[in-house]
């Protein structure tokens, strides 16, 4: 896995070494060839999430799905006019959409807003397992990528190039066309950030593991964690909205304070 | 003049008069004053200026906010130049900020980060400098609005209005050049927009861009060049213009609001020495203190979050500092498709049009005093600041101008408005496009109605007094509400304003009516067709006679 | 500034307003009535509590010097904060603390002086207003006559009006001297033609599309439906002047369903299995257009909201831009990596005068 990411990361990577076949196959090959304790650890971590999926979970998930999702997505998740097919969206997609409260949809609108999650983590995982059992898709990421111990510099650079134009450099969010928006990233769990990148929910583009490797995603998460843990050294950040909020602050509070002082100065003493 | 005499004499003849009673301190002061005066004639300046009178009104201190902000900018800016490196040479950042460590960036950006994180107090100075810059332009704007709405630009102050206008433009230029200096992603994209705008200008655009950036954008020349402009050329012109501005202020003396005892021929207020000096000097420290608090507790321009300039990334919510916002808004409001190829050349009206509109708007601000002087034909000096309601058309023009400016500014933050109020960008832009035309017109008429209404109310009060709410029954059985008459002082504030009538067209000495005269008459009637004349003594007398 | 006779009249209650004899300038269309109200003169002076009550006076004095003491304490605190809150390498909260406490100390130092001085002026300095007379801004007639005389003498003594050739050649010379300065600015930019530079990018036949910023090449199969990759030409990172090239060569790579693409007939071969590459530089004023919506296939510019429709060869559907984003023709090489078929067929970025 290390090797895979470093290959993606450096410009000197030799072409043709990577099979054009499916992602999963490549990751397994990578793990087998690299070996080592770290890789072993990560493979067990990955194995844990996969082995944790049991037949009973899939069945529970199916029941929950039939009760809560089937109206729009169809009884077999084949999709209806109201909602897309869920074949191949993977466990990551379900875990993201349900885990952030975006699904089930509360009302029709330009896009599904995040809101308090309707299901417990256990129920969410069950539904994810069910949907994943229908057709292969992106899996819920393993813990190792969510630690925030990657390269913050590269993460920040990748974030600026791939994410900042919609989500703003400080992750404060931004506007899209026709009433849609890129949400703020503050307070979003790392696992959901990762899943969003892999699955491309709603209008967000997909950043699969071949265009941005899992290691690089971990770097991005590292940067976001850094932002979360280190409030602005300059003081209150005024929402990180840039010059507009600064300008409003300067006018309303700055100049407002100045005008208040001028009134005090010019007022006759009692 | 007694004050000047007593202070002058001991200085001129030390010991002769003051010695018998002078303490050591007084003797020293006297000797020092003598020493300086014998070499500089300073006593003359002190005599002339020391007891000059300044009217005391809060709105007359807005220009001071601008002046003091500028001093703060000079002080903090000087500190920053000791650490800042205006170079676009690529270096590897090796400072304190972890998420940028090891990244290639320009020396300008790296040194700005070092100022922020590796110089104690550096971040404070940067933030105070930037906050002061925002407030500098804002307070100039508010000061100009005060001058505009009180008619303080009228003769003999038209030239000082123009100089003040130049200061406003220079302040914005200073702001923009300074905003670009850290060479971060946000300001880099700002420069890119400038480059794109310049390229869109017909005939010269491409070459101007080529000369500005020493070749292709971004090049390695623009930051050092902006630095020279920012710390040398622009401040030099600004300080010179500021000097003339202050000099003319002293020569013209300050305007004052109408009030009892205040006439066009005097100025009532507090003397420079000591009251105004204490208030003004104290105010400088307060302005500096407030700006320091802002720098200490509120982040401004977090360049570490933006990262170094790179032509590929961009941040959502990319906006210029507020004072350039109106220009950015004008670019956003341009309707689609205004670009044509004619005669093998590209005409980018999506850029030319906003440039023309903004230039026209700004030029109108600069020449407004001359337009109004032409309309009224009034050649007298005016030293009484008018209440905005007493010049309804001017006030309405001002309100229309503010609305116009606000529409552009709001358009520049269309994306933030869309996300924060749950609207669509397209909806915000379309609304602003409509308001661009409707807003100023509506503001004009609304403001005019409000002004005339207020004038009517003033007139009512001046003539009839204030409704006391006390109902009395007259001997004849009639009920009336007792009106409390104003005293002379209060009434004077309400009745002392100028009244103009529309210009009558008259043939000149050759018996002809010129086109210019027709135009002037048309504008004049637009200006003064709706007017409420100030009450006269005759009216009051008639009123009293009628009432009793 | 002739103010020797400035009457420094203390504002005595009801003092008559002194009337000087002003020059009669033309009032224009101003209405002058004979029965206008008369200025009642200054109202009586109202003393302050500090003028009347010695206790209040002493209290105000105490407040003023206390404020100045606070100022001194603030400045000392600022110096203490400078030492007490050092900057630690990599520790942002140390920067935050240093900034806040240094600023707080300095602000206290400044506000103490400021508030103290203003309070002093308001409560303890002379409380009534004084009157100063204005004088017409124009010089007196004698002054003006003397000024005219000075100019006349200057003219006579120099002969500048009489010796017309001297005068005219001097004016000509003064006009001509600054001209070299204008010429000197020519070398602000290089001698080469800007148009040529604007028309060329690093993209040419067989140049690989690689990821920004890592430089990793991209296989067509790496892109899943809805993917977007920010792309630069291979070799860009090694250039000395990479920013100038990147500013023109940045490209956005997107994969759509091939049936969603509505391609121009002459461009049908420019995409590869639904993968399209468009210049990332806005045709309006050059911001990076990078906000790609994978369901609506809109590309939005965050600077001025120009919106491009990727399915319809990136034509403008909203905003101030006019031209579609230029498309980069792409294909794959023998190893399956994406390469450019050729360079762009038109100049990228904002319009310019010479562009046709």
3D structure, described in words:
The complex is a heterotrimer of chains A (270), B (548) and C (356). Chain A is mainly α and 270 residues long. Chain A contains twelve helices and two strands; from the N terminus they run αααααααααββααα. Chain A folds into two domains: 29-140, Cytochrome Bc1 Complex, Chain D, domain 2; 141-254, Cytochrome Bc1 Complex, Chain D, domain 2, CATH 1.10.760. Chain A is 53% helix and 1% strand. Among the domains of chain B are: 24-54; 55-329, Cytochrome Bc1 Complex, Chain C (Up-down Bundle), CATH 1.20.810.10. Chain B is mostly helical and 548 residues long. In chain C, the strands form four sheets. In chain C, strands 3-4-5-6-11 form a five-stranded antiparallel sheet. Classes of the chains: A mainly alpha (270), B mainly alpha (548), C alpha+beta (356).
Please give the radius of gyration of chain C in angstroms.
38 Å
- Structural class by helix and strand composition of chain A: mainly alpha
CA-based gyration radius of chain A: 23 Å
Largest sheet of chain A: 2 strands, antiparallel
Give the low-confidence spans of chain C: 1-7, 11-20
Total separate domains of chain C: 3
CATH names the topology of the largest domain in chain A as Cytochrome Bc1 Complex, Chain D, domain 2
CATH architecture of the largest domain in chain C: 3-layer Sandwich
CATH class assignment of the largest domain in chain C: Mainly Beta
Proportion of residues in β-strands of chain C: 5-15%
Strand arrangement in the largest pleated sheet of chain A:
1-2
In sequence order, what are the helices and strands of chain C, one letter per element?
Answer: EHHHEHHHHEEHEEEEEEEEE
| Strand proportion of chain A | under 5%
Name of the top-level CATH class of the largest domain in chain A: Mainly Alpha
Physical arrangement of strands within the biggest beta sheet of chain C: 3-4-5-6-11
Distance between the termini of chain C: 62 Å
**Quick one: biggest sheet of chain C?**
5 strands, antiparallel
Overall, the morphology of chain C is extended
How helix-rich are the residues of chain C, as a percent range?
25-40%
CATH superfamily of the largest domain in chain C: Rieske [2Fe-2S] iron-sulphur domain
């Amino acid at each position: 896995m290390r090797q895979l990411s470093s290959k993606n990361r450096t410009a000197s990577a030799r072409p043709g070494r990577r099979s054009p076949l499916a992602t999963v196959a490549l990751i397994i090959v990578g793990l087998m060839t690299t070996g080592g304790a770290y890789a072993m650890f990560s493979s067990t971590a990955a194995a844990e999430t996969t082995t944790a999926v049991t037949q009973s979970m899939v069945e529970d998930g199916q029941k929950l799905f039939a009760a809560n999702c089937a109206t729009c997505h169809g009884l077999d998740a084949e999709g209806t006019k109201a909602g897309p097919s869920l074949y191949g969206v993977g466990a990551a997609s379900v875990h993201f959409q349900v885990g952030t409260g975006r699904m089930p949809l509360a009302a029709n609108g330009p896009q599904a807003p995040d809101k308090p999650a309707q299901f417990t983590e256990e129920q969410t995982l069950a539904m994810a397992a069910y949907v994943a059992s229908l057709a292969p898709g992106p899996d819920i990421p393993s813990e190792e990528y969510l630690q925030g111990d990657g390269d913050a510099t590269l993460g920040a650079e990748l974030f600026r190039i791939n994410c900042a134009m919609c989500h703003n450099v400080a992750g404060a969010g931004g506007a899209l066309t026709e009433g849609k928006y890129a949400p703020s990233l503050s307070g979003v769990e790392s696992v959901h950030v990762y899943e969003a990148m892999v699955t491309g929910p709603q209008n967000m583009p997909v950043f699969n593991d071949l265009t941005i490797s899992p290691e690089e995603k971990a770097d991005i998460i590292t940067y976001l964690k850094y932002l979360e843990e280190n409030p602005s050294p300059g003081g209150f950040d005024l929402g990180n909205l840039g010059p507009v909020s600064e300008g409003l602050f300067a006018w309303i509070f700055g100049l407002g304070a100045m005008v208040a002082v001028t009134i005090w100065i010019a007022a006759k003493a009692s | 003049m007694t004050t000047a005499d007593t202070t002058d004499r001991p200085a001129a003849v030390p010991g002769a008069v003051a010695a018998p009673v002078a303490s050591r301190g007084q003797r020293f002061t006297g000797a020092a004053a003598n020493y300086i005066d014998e070499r500089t004639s300073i006593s003359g300046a002190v005599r002339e200026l020391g007891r000059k009178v300044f009217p005391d009104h809060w709105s007359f201190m807005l220009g001071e906010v601008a002046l003091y902000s500028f001093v703060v900018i000079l002080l903090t800016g000087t500190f920053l130049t000791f650490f800042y490196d205006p170079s676009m040479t690529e270096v590897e950042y090796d400072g304190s900020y972890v998420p940028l460590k090891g990244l290639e960036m320009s020396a300008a950006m790296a040194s700005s980060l070092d100022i922020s994180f590796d110089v104690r107090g550096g971040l404070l100075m940067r933030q105070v400098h930037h906050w002061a810059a925002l407030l500098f332009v804002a307070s100039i704007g508010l000061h100009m609005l005060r001058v505009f709405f009180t008619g303080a630009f009228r003769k003999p102050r038209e030239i000082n209005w123009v100089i003040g206008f130049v200061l406003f433009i220079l302040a914005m230029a200073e702001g923009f050049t300074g905003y670009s200096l850290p060479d971060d992603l946000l300001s880099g994209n700002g420069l890119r927009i400038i480059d794109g705008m310049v390229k869109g200008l017909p005939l010269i655009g491409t070459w101007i861009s080529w000369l500005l950036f020493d070749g292709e954008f971004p090049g390695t020349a623009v930051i050092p060049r902006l630095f020279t402009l920012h710390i040398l050329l622009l401040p030099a012109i600004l300080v010179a213009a500021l000097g003339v501005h202050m000099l003319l202020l002293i020569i013209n003396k300050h305007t004052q609001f109408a009030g009892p005892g205040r006439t066009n021929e005097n100025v009532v207020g507090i003397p420079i020495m000591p009251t105004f000096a204490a208030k003004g000097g104290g105010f400088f420290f307060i302005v500096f203190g407030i700006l320091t608090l802002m720098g200490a507790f509120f982040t401004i321009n977090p360049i570490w979050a933006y990262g170094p300039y790179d032509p590929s990334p961009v941040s959502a919510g990319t906006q210029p500092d507020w004072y350039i916002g109106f220009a950015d808004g004008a670019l956003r409001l341009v309707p689609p498709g205004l670009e044509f190829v004619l005669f093998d050349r590209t005409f980018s009206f999506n850029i030319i049009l906003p440039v023309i509109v903004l230039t026209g708007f700004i030029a109108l601000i600069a020449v407004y005093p001359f337009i109004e002087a032409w309309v009224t034909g009034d050649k007298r000096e005016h030293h009484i600041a008018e209440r905005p309601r007493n010049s309804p058309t001017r006030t309405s023009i001002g309100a229309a101008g503010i609305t116009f400016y606000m529409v552009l500014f709001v358009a520049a933050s269309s994306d933030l408005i869309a996300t924060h109020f749950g609207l669509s960008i397209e909806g915000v832009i379309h609304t602003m496009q409509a308001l661009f035309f409707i807003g100023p017109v509506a503001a004009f008429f609304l403001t005019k109605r409000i002004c005339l209404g207020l004038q009517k109310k003033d007139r009512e009060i001046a003539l009839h007094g204030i409704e006391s709410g006390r109902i009395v029954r007259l001997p004849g059985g009639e009920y009336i509400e007792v009106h409390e008459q104003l005293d002379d002082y209060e009434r004077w504030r309400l009745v002392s304003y100028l009244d103009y009538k529309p210009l009558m067209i008259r043939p000149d000495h050759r018996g002809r009516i010129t086109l210019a005269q027709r135009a002037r008459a048309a504008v004049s009637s637009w200006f003064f067709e709706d007017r409420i004349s100030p009450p006269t003594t005759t009216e009051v007398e008639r009123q009293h006679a009628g009432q009793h | 500034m002739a103010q020797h006779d400035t009457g420094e009249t203390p504002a005595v209650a009801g003092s008559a307003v002194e009337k000087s004899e002003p020059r009669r300038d033309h009032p224009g269309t101003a209405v002058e009535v004979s029965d206008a109200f008369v200025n009642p003169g200054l109202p009586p002076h109202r003393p302050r509590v500090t003028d009347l009550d010695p206790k209040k006076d002493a209290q105000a004095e105490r407040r003023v010097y206390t404020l100045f003491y606070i100022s001194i304490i603030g400045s000392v605190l600022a110096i203490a904060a400078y030492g007490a809150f050092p900057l630690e390498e990599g520790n942002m909260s140390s920067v935050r603390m240093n900034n806040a406490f240094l600023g707080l100390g300095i602000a206290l130092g400044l506000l103490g002086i400021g508030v103290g001085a203003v309070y002093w002026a308001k409560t303890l300095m002379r409380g009534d207003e004084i009157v100063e007379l204005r004088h017409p801004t124009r010089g007196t007639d004698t002054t003006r006559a003397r000024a005219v005389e000075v100019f006349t003498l200057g003219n006579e003594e120099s002969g500048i009006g009489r010796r017309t050739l001297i005068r005219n050649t001097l004016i000509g010379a003064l006009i001509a001297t600054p001209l070299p300065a204008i010429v000197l600015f020519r070398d602000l930019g290089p001698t080469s033609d800007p148009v040529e530079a604007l028309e060329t990018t690093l993209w040419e036949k067989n140049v690989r599309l690689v990821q920004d910023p890592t430089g990793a090449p991209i296989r067509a199969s790496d892109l899943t439906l809805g993917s977007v990759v920010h792309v630069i030409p291979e070799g860009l990172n090694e250039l000395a002047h990479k920013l100038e090239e990147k500013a023109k060569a940045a490209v956005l790579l997107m994969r759509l369903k091939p049936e969603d693409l509505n391609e121009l007939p002459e461009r049908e071969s420019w995409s590869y299995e639904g993968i399209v590459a468009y210049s990332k530089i806005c045709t309006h004023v050059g911001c990076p257009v990078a906000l790609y919506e994978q369901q609506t296939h809109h590309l939005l510019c965050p600077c001025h909201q120009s919106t491009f429709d990727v399915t319809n060869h990136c034509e403008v559907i909203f905003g101030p831009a006019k031209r579609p984003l230029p498309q980069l023709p792409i294909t794959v090489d023998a190893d399956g990596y994406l390469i450019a078929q050729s360079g762009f067929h038109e100049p990228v970025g904002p319009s310019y005068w010479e562009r046709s």
